[in-house]
Structure formats: C-alpha cells, structure tokens
Amino acid sequence: MTSTDPYETTEGAAYDTGLLTPVSAGTAAERATGDRAFLQAMLDAEAALTRAQAALGHAPAHAAEAVTASARADRFDARDLALRARAGGNPVIPLVAALTAAVPADAAPYVHRGATSQDVLDTAAMLVAARTVPLITAELHRAAAAFGRLAAAHRDAPMAGRTLGQHAVPTTFGLKAAGWRHLALDAADRLAALRLPAQLGGAAGTLAAFEYLAGAPGSGPELTERYAAELGLAAPLLPWHTLRTPIADLATALAFTAAALGKPAADVLLLARTETAELAEGSGGGSSAMPHKSNPVRATLVAAAARQAPALAAVLLGSLTAEDERPAGAWHAEWQPLRELLRLAGAAAHHTAELAEGLRVRPDRMLDNLHRTRGLVTSERLAAALADVLGRAGARALLDRLSRRAVEEGTELAELLAAAPETTGRISPEELRALADPAGATGAAPLLVDHALRRQPSADPEGHP
C-alpha cells in the first residue's frame, strides 16, 4: 500500500532524518529504534503469536508459516500505517488489516487471533528494547575500559579537587577517571538487570478470547509462556496493560545511563575550558564563525542527552498511574518518549566511549593550576599539622589570617607561615614547604584508584578488559 501523504518527496518520506538530533544521528541505537525497527518488531510479535498458537494446536501450522513469511517490514508502507493509525489511535490496527490482507485467505482468520493492539505494541517495544540495550551496554563497557586505562595511567597525577567551583584540596586525575568508570559500570549493570517481558492479555487482561477461540479453557497462561519463548522475552506473571513496571524499570535504567554519563561530560567541559586546559578532546569540533575553535563536541552531545533524559523518564513514570484495565492516553504517551530514551542512552554511551578513547590529558597543566593558589589548596593538611603545635583554634586563626595575606600579596602560604612568630622554632621552613606542596597532599586517592579498578565489569558482550 502506498502513502498519499502530500509531504512525501521523490526520495521517500523525509520526515525525520536526524537533522535536529545530532546527539543520536547515525548511532546504532538510532538505527535499532527507527520506524522500520518498530514495524518489524510488531510483525515479529504477530508472527510469534500465531506460531505459539500453532504449537498448542490452536492454529494450523500452515497459518503460522504464512503469517511468519508475510511478517516482513519491507512489505509494508510505514508512513501509510502511521497516517491510518490516527483513526484508531495506534498503528497496530491498520497493521493487522494490512497483514491479514497479505496472507492467504485460509490463514487470515489466525492473524492477531484473540489479541488486542496493546499486546502487540507493548511486546514490540520490549523487543526493540531487547535489541537495543545490548548495543548500549557494549558502548558502556567500551567507555568503562577506556576510563579504566586513564585511571591506571594517571593514578598519581595530582590535580585540584574542586568544590562549588573553587579549588578545594588536591586529588588525582586517576581518581576522577576511576569515578567515571564506576558510573559507566553502574549504568551497564542496571541495564543488564532488566527483565523485559512479552505482553499478552487480550482485551482486558483476562486471556479470555485466546481460550474461547481455541476451545481450550485454562490454556491462556501456557500460551503466554510459549509466546514469550518464541520471542526470546521473559514470560510475564500477569498481563501488564496497566501494571507498567517493565516500562518504569526500563525508563529509569535508561535515564540513569544518560544522566550518569553527563558527569564525565560535565567534567570534561569544565576542564577543557581555555583558561583551565587540563583536558582536551582528541578531535574537537569547529565553529562556523571562529576558525581557531576546537570545541569539546563529544562532551557537549553527551551533556545534551543527559539534560533531556530525566524529563522523558518522568513521562514514562507518570504512565504508572493508569486507570482501569487499559488506559486512554497513558499508554499512548509512552511510545515516543521510550524510543527517544533508548536513543539518548545509546548515543550518550557511544559518544562517551569515543570521548574516553580520544581524551588528551595534560598533567603538567593540572599541576600548574594546582599551584595557582600558592599553597592555599593544602590548607586542610596544614591545619592538621599546625594543630599539633598551636592547638586547633590557634592553627585555624593563623591560617585564616595568612591565607588572606597570601591572596592579597601574591605570596606563597608556606613563606608566610615560616615567617610567622607562632611557628618560629616550632616547625621548620622545610617542613612547612613540604606540607604546602599540593602534589604530596592527595591523601588516599591513589589507593582508591586501585580499589575501584578491582571492580570487574559484568556481562560485557564485547569482552572489553
């Protein structure tokens, strides 16, 4: 069937080519979640249902073979189905009509037999998710592997730890990268733990039509199990037309993934600023107006995904409040946000992996920036050492006064401390300079890196180390 849409071009229906979504354009997740992918998943659900019914003797084998043979997305016009979906509110209704017309007459009565539209579209959504999530986790493990290499290589590299936008105390870049790895693995674990079930309930979740059409009372649960097995999905304990736990679980895992990857993106964006220059992307992006620019584009795209994902998850979580046995509007509101969340999580994982593998680290610049405060970044360490000599209150008062002078005069804090009457004869200038050296004040950061890197990735589909 051919679309009569007046906006269709000679090259095809150019409605959404990714022009405004560079975050996900061209990614594996985008390809796995397109209209063709959802259409094929709906057809896979229809074919699996007929096969499951045939396996239980509820449909003839030739009907299952005919439906399966016809259930190919390239035989259907997705745009035409989309336009016809407006009449009934979902694309399954016109698809069933088209599939019924595509099979031989003796197989037609067994298309969609006993099912409702939500059975097929929910199952298709789970199939698309089941096919997309491994793509996302593979990229997450790739990112985690790259972050792990960065953490190991820069285990002891000192840099400024920053809190509320200001230098706080020294840390190491290795510890920062180890934290990024930890988040990537957290996301992968949450996605791997998902249980994606098939949906089968009939008109109001009782499986009644399946049983009376087959003349087989009590066979509904067995059919559900067979149907799920045909699809490689989990068998649900109950029909979940208005029990939207699978959607909520998927939404939160995907939103967590995109948002968690926003952390390394945010760090890179800040540390790659011209005045900071501690990090740089391997191949930055250009500017339409400024030839000198090398923008942190990967981090920018990940940050964009991280900002969008929570709002989409909120829509899906809102659909938990679904009335009756099948809702009006709540279910319909899920489709596009779910697809977009799959795309954003997949895109964020992909761009994070690319970012991590190409990231340029500048330890010398980190050390230079660490010394910019002239020793103030070690005030916590100095306070602990001076408390043994001057008492806690005395040490704090001295450091408060001399820290202000160091800023005002541009003098090293260690020099001011060495000249202070309170420390004369009590602590040597050499000891004060050592205490004020930020490179030696990273605490347990290197050991924490070792500890973090002992965490092993779970269920890495690509075998990244």
Q: If helices are DSSP runs of H or I spanning 4 or more residues, what is the number of helices? A: 18
From the alpha carbons, calculate the radius of gyration and give it in angstroms. Answer: 30 Å
Pattern of helices and strands? HHHHHHEEHHHHEHHEHHHHHH
- CATH top level of the largest domain is Mainly Alpha
Tell me the strand order in the biggest sheet. 1-2
Number of strands: 4
Taken as a percent bin, the fraction of beta residues is under 5%
The CATH topology label of the largest domain is Fumarase C, Chain A, domain 2
Uncertain spans, ≥5 residues at pLDDT below 50?
Answer: 6-13, 285-293
Oligomeric composition of the shown chains? single chain
Can you describe what's shown?
This protein has helices at 28-32, 35-55, 61-70, 78-88, 92-102, 117-153, 173-192, 208-214, 220-231, 245-271, 297-318, 335-358, 363-370, 379-390, 392-409, 413-419, 429-435, 445-453; strands spanning 158-163, 166-172, 279-280, 360-361. Helix 4 crosses helix 5 and helix 7 (173-192) runs antiparallel to helix 10. Mean pLDDT is 91; it is low at 6-13 and 285-293. The longest helix has 37 residues, at 117-153. The protein has 3 domains: 1-8 and 26-115 and 200-239, Fumarase C, Chain B, domain 1, CATH 1.10.275.10; 131-197 and 244-364, Fumarase/aspartase (Central domain) (Fumarase C, Chain A, domain 2, Up-down Bundle), CATH 1.20.200; 376-435, Fumarase/aspartase (C-terminal domain) (Ribonucleotide Reductase Protein R1, domain 1). The protein has a two-stranded antiparallel ribbon with strand order 1-2. By secondary structure, the chain is mainly alpha-helical.
